[in-house]
Design goal:
Helices cover about 45% and strands about 20% of the residues. The protein is α/β, with parallel strands linked by helices. It has an 8-stranded parallel beta barrel with strand order 1-2-3-4-5-6-7-8, surrounded by 6 helices.
């Protein structure tokens, strides 16, 4: 995850009926380093079928493939990793079930949660929501100050997430983030490839300089 600077979450809820794999393919062409599959609307079978299709796409393209929430689907689809929220299986138990090779990410909303996830053995963490976002309406906004705190206090890779788009990205980058996760800014865009390309160029310019 250390080399994944643009992390695109393909969420069925923002796709407006488009094929998740087609959207992910555009994102990857535009420079997405990681694709996460999030789907709280479909049946278990449909979720897994799409996960397997996304696994094939990311295998061909070299992008990292992460499954949201579902450890079972991550293992069955041979994903690179699983991303866990607070309602999901704890990191330590996920590690016991999955073994050492599966990447395990954890959502965090404070510095104490970020440090706890690191201590529990998470390979990377999501930090946010940095700004208000309809995908996480029940979570309080953490702002860019948490980015600064995590940058100083956590050694594992971390990804800033929540309400990040072309307008808010400069604030996140100036706070010290080099790995950015987006949902609507790419998966909900009219042209996911162009949206990803524009974001990736801005991120690359910031962390290279």
């Amino acid at each position: 995850m250390r080399t994944c600077h643009l992390y695109v979450i393909v969420d069925r809820a923002v796709l407006q009926g488009r094929d998740p794999v087609a959207v992910a393919e555009g994102a990857v062409r535009g420079g997405a380093d990681a694709i996460q599959w999030r789907d709280k609307l479909s049946s278990d079978g449909e979720f897994l079928e799409t996960a397997r299709r996304l696994r094939e796409l990311t295998r061909r393209s070299g992008a990292v493939f992460i499954v949201n929430d579902r450890l079972d689907a991550a293992l069955l689809s041979r994903a690179d990793g699983v991303h866990l929220g607070h309602e999901d299986i704890p990191v330590r138990q996920a590690r016991e079930l999955a073994g050492p090779s599966l990447l395990i990410g954890r959502s965090t909303h404070s510095l104490s949660e970020a440090k706890a996830a690191e201590n529990d053995g998470a390979d990377y963490i999501g930090v946010g929501p940095v700004f208000k976002t309809p995908t996480k309406p029940d979570y309080p906004v953490v702002g860019t100050e948490l980015i600064r705190q995590v940058k100083e206090g956590v050694s594992i890779p971390w990804v800033a997430i929540g309400g990040i788009d072309l307008q808010t990205l400069p604030l996140v980058l100036s706070a010290g983030a080099t790995r950015i996760a987006v949902v609507r800014a790419v998966a909900g865009a009219r042209d996911p490839e162009e949206a990803a390309r524009t974001l990736k160029a801005l991120i690359t310019a910031a962390y290279v300089s």
